[in-house]
Amino acid sequence: MIVLKRSWRKYSIDNLEQVMKVKIKSWTGVATWRWVANDDSCGICRMPFDGCCSDCRLPGDDCPLVWGQCSHCFHIHCIMKWLQSQQLHQQCPMCRQEWKFKE
Amino acid sequence: MAAVRTADSRQQWEIIKKNFCIDGDFSQINDSGEDLQLVVRLVQQLGAGQLVLDLALDAIWLALRQSVVPKFWQHFVTFEAQTNGKEDDAGEGSVEVMSRVATAVSELYDSAGSFVPQINRCEMLCEQSGAKFEDCIPGGLMEHFKLHLRATLHSQMPSSFMHLLHKFYSAAFKVFYQAEVGSQVEESEEVTDEPVPCGGCGGATDACHCQAITNTFCQVNKQLYGLDLLERLAGDIISSLLLSVITDHVSTTCRDSYDQSCINQLEKWVENVVVGWLELVYCGSRGQLSSADAAIQTMVSNNLNQTYMTALYHTYTTTRIDQLFNIVIEYPESQPALEDIRECLDRTHLRDRLVESLRSAIQTRLLHPGVNTTDVLHAYISAIKALRVLDPKGVLLELVSEPVRQYLRGREDTVRYIVTSLTDESCSELSEELLVAAPLVLDDSHSDDDNMDNWETWTPDPVHAHNLKSKSQRTADIISMLVNIYGSKDVFITEYRTILADRILSQFSYDTEREIRYLEHLKVRFGETLALLHKCEVMVKDVADSKRINTSINSDENPHREKQKFPVSAMILSAQFWPSFKEERLQVPEEVTKELENYTEAFQDLKGNRTLNWKPHLGQVQLEIELKNRTLNLTVTPTQATIIYHFQERNRWSIDDLSTMTQVPKTVLRRKITYWQTQGVLQEVESDVFVLVEGEETGEEGQTAAAGLPLADIAPPAIEEDEAESVMASAQDQREEELQVLWSYIVGMLTNLDCLPLERIHAMLKMFVQGSVECSPQELRAFLDRKVRQHQLLLTNGLYKLPKN
Amino acid sequence: MYLFVVEFPTPSVPLRGPCLPQQKRLQKELMSLLKEPPAGVTVDVDTAHTKLTEWVVHMEGAAGTLYEGEKFQLQFKFSPKYPFDSPEVIFVGDNIPVHPHIYSNGHICLSILTEDWSPALSVQAICLSIISMLSSCKEKKRPPDNSYYVKTCSANPKKTKWWYHDDTV
Fold first, then answer.
1. Which of B361, B540, B778, C155 is most open to solvent, judged by the fewest CB atoms within 10 Å of its CB?
2. What is the pTM of this model?
3. Is C166 inside a domain boundary?
4. Would you call C17 and B770 a contact, using CB atoms and an 8 Å cutoff?
């Protein structure tokens, strides 16, 4: 009787890998978001892109970035303020090329 | 008469001697047969007034010294000899004492009375011959006689007399007290038929000799009073009996009950007992005071107010002081007791003792490692409330609670407990305090102390309030007091932020309503503009945003969903606004990596120009584990999921291999793997080697007994305790980070300006870091001093400077 | 004479206050100037800390130039519109550098201070420009219209309509 039991156990260990299956039913992960930009912070307000411009309280959707055709980017509120303050030329603050929004 | 006039000088002297008892024979004083007037005149003629007076008085004093007083004391000396060795205070003994004292006193009274004619004679001599006795003590010769009697008595008093006298008065007092108080008690008590010994004299009810005792007692008092001896001999005893009964009564009344005010009742009781007893002693029976001498009336009322009421307040207060710790803890039930104490404190000088005693009680009962932080906090809160009752100005509180604050400051989990209980509805005590819509009053904020608008109602601080904080801070509300343990809002909000982060990242509940509510309360209390609270707001908003993003990405219309093997959702955080995370590594299984990448792509499509950085070790995974004879449905952490996932490929892993595979450090891995051991899924077969456990029969150690349940659909267990540990860097570490930022500024300043005092550094930092880092002057000083100790800074003459290198 | 002396406590105000958007940037600039100043430039923290919108920067003439060993002070004033509006920058103090683009009242003829200003510029960038302007000078002399200009100009150089005649010096 005892002998029989032992041999059964041996058998079961040998076959373990075929037996257990781990099925992932759902996975909730944690991530931080960031802007895909050349720089870490805005050349106008000097605040990090992943934060918000100095006029805003909420980052992300509420304080988005915009890119110029020159490939420089700024908080949208910062560049708009700058462009509004310029009467003659609409230049990129970084490269002084004419500012055009990248489509 | 003729004999007086005609007698020769020798006879005349004999006559004088006889009439003034100069030879000490007082037996025939009343029947000398001579006309006193003539004798006095004779003395005058001889011009011997002074001489005769001196001799006559000397004879009296001698008689007192040699006969009257020794005879009086003899009663007690022999009594003492008889009762020596028999230590009994029982009724029989006191009866003996009663009669002995009565006999002695009455004999003394009589023999002293026998001198009265002689005194009168001498008095007359003084008047007529102008002779003077000693220094002419006011009150006349009679008073002088009493004085001598007292002095002589005292000079010969046997040592045991006071003890006996005490017995005498005790016995009488007991009878009195029984009658006085016993009568009050009887009304409420059931009358039993059992013969009980009399509470007054201790004799059987039918043989009660209370009345006899009282009678004897009154007679003795009357005689002693007549001799002016009552106050001198028994005054202390009379009052000590009262004082001790007051002490006993107060401590019985106050024992362990704090929920009723008893001071008024005690005052009445004291007045009743004191007046009753003094009446009995000085007037001979109850209710006689109003008809007694004015002198006695004044004496009784003075004693009552000055001695006995004071004793009451003193005893009451000291009794309560000994209980104060419990009284404080039992607030608010103990409110009545506290109000009593407050009243008594004003009439005694026990404030310092109260502070000292409570401080030491707190020290021994509260401030040691055996007490939970929650209990210390609870006691602190009770103390704040209770001591406010005692002293609305908060001076006592300040004095008593400083050590508690200091202690709490040293406990690492204090802030966490406070913040948790503030935002926990089950701990109503504090969460209700949070609802008080008032801004905090902090040590570092400047409030209306210098406000001159209310100068008319200004009151000075009590004298012992020196060196204390300003008035407004002492009377601040509970939460302010708690925050003031640290003196800074930032420490609190930093901790709140960490707790919030932990809550979000352990529960993964997307319901933010509760957090928003607390945040609103905190904003009211801590100030809308606090940068850290703003960060918390963003954190809560991240949760809401994540929910929306998840819904959008996992919706049926999203093409990304088609290739999905299992649903992935995410908590997407705005890194700038979250506290720093503990850095942990984890390589999740390939299958999972792919799914996370898919999610990232979907996110990029949704949010354009934004991408995700995963923190793979954080999250929540639902697993279904199929074993040979059972299926487990579990909710686990990504690390735990990854561990068990790899056991699909191999049933045996060493910690080393698994660590290489998952990139989780071995120490962490060992800790995490215990979860699967307790689930009975893994087993450590040799040191650091784990194998998969299949069926119930394999459990040699019996630890897999649970697996015996066939195909158990075990409910997801609460995530294991060690998983409850924070995923965030500790508040201390975070603070350290912030201070490090300040340090770089300070180095910049000192490089520029060579050396600066603390105030200037603080003022400049204020300018530079405005709105981002808060640092009180005190904290800054502590920080700079630490830098001095680390030799990174020099301090000379109050100026900080960088060391030259 | 005095009946009593009233001592007002120095308020110990926490490091916080109303924070204008503009201030955040100025704080950042001030700190970066403190931590990594360009060679020969030190910001006078003392003046800056009392009023964040007004700084004095000490400047040393660079070695190997006409101004070697000389010390100057530059005053910066920032309007509420900064950085969308350029700061007002003039030389102040005893020693105004003698330079063809610097007037004896301290006004500087430098295009980035007015029409070529960009919010991407900074105090640090201005300092570097001025150092480079000084360093490249070949002859110490005042601008030709100096005496007329100083008599007629506004105190604020930004009110001057500059005619940037020479970009090489």
1. C155
2. 0.66
3. no
4. yes
Inter-chain touch B446–C12, beta carbons under 8 Å: yes
Residue C92 lies in a domain: yes
**3-class secondary-structure state, position B615:** strand
Answer for the pair A52, A75: CB distance below 8 angstroms, yes or no.
Answer: yes
Catalytic residue among C19, C109, C127, C153: C109
Q: What is the CATH number of the domain that holds C103?
A: 3.10.110.10
Task: Give residue for tokens 């929920």.
Answer: B259
The token duo for A79 is 């560049």
pLDDT at C157: 84
Answer yes or no: is C128 within a domain: yes
Question: Rounded to an integer, what distance in angstroms lies between the CA atom of residue B662 and that of residue B659?
Answer: 5
Sequence-distant (≥ 6) Cβ neighbours of residue B459 within 8 angstroms? none
Nearest-CB residue to B446 (from C11, C49, C50): C11
Tell me the C-alpha distance between B613 and A34, whole Å. Answer: 8
Q: For chains B and C, what is the number of CB pairs under 8 angstroms?
A: 80
CA torsion B315-B320-B323-B324 (nearest 10°) is: -140
| Contacts with A33 from chain B: Cβ below 8 Å | 572-575, 603, 607, 610-613
Domains in chain A: how many in total?
1
Kindly list the residues from chain B whose CB atom is less than 8 angstroms away from the CB atom of residue A17: 648-651, 692
**Residue A67 included in any domain:** yes
CA distance B535 to A58: 9
Q: What is the arrangement of strands in the sheet containing B610-626, beginning at the earlier edge strand?
A: B568-573, A21-35, B610-626, B631-636
Average pLDDT over residues B69-90: 67
pLDDT tens digits for B376-418? 888 888 888 888 888 887 788 888 888 888 888 788 788 878 8
The answer, yes or no, to whether residue B707 has pLDDT greater than 60, is no
Asked about C137 being catalytic, the answer comes back as no
Question: Which of the four CATH numbers 1.10.10.10, 3.30.70.790, 3.40.50.300, 3.30.70.100 does domain B731-801 have?
Answer: 1.10.10.10
Range of the domain at A60: 25-103
Specify the range with the lowest mean pLDDT, choosing from B219-228, B354-363, B465-474. B465-474
The CATH code of the domain that includes A93 is 3.30.40.10
Chain B residues close to C35, C-beta within 8 Å? 744-745, 747-748
Does residue C57 fall inside a structural domain? Answer: yes
Q: What is the per-residue DSSP string for B278-309? A: HHHHHHSSTT-GGGS-HHHHHHHHHIIIIIII
C-alpha B173/C-alpha A8 separation (Å) is: 95
**Which residues, at least 6 apart from C123, have a Cβ–Cβ distance to it below 8 Å?**
C29, C30, C33, C43, C55, C57, C76, C87
**Structure ipTM:** 0.84
The domain made up of B583-724 is a member of CATH 3.30.230.130: yes
Tokens 């009168």 identify what position?
A: B120
* Residue A29 belongs to some domain of the structure: yes
Task: Evaluate the omega torsion of the peptide bond into residue B332 and state whether it is cis, within 30 degrees of 0.
Answer: yes
User: B766–C48: do the CB atoms touch at under 8 Å?
Assistant: no
C interface with B, Cβ–Cβ < 8 A, is 8-19, 23-24, 27, 30-31, 34-35, 42-46, 48-50, 52
Q: Which chains touch C (3 or more CB pairs under 8 A)?
A: A, B
Q: Could you tell me if residue A18 is inside a domain?
A: no
Query: For B651-676, what is each residue's pLDDT tens digit?
Result: 899 999 999 999 999 999 999 999 99
B611-649: pLDDT as tens digits: 999 999 999 999 999 988 888 999 999 999 999 999 988
Paired strand residues for C102 = C99, C108
Please state the domain count of chain C: 1
From chain C, the residues in CB contact with B771 under 8 A are: 16-17, 19, 23-24
> Of A49-53, B330-334, B705-709, C50-54, which range is least confident?
B705-709
Confidence of residue B6 (pLDDT cuts 50, 70, 90): low
CA distance B453 to chain C (A): 16
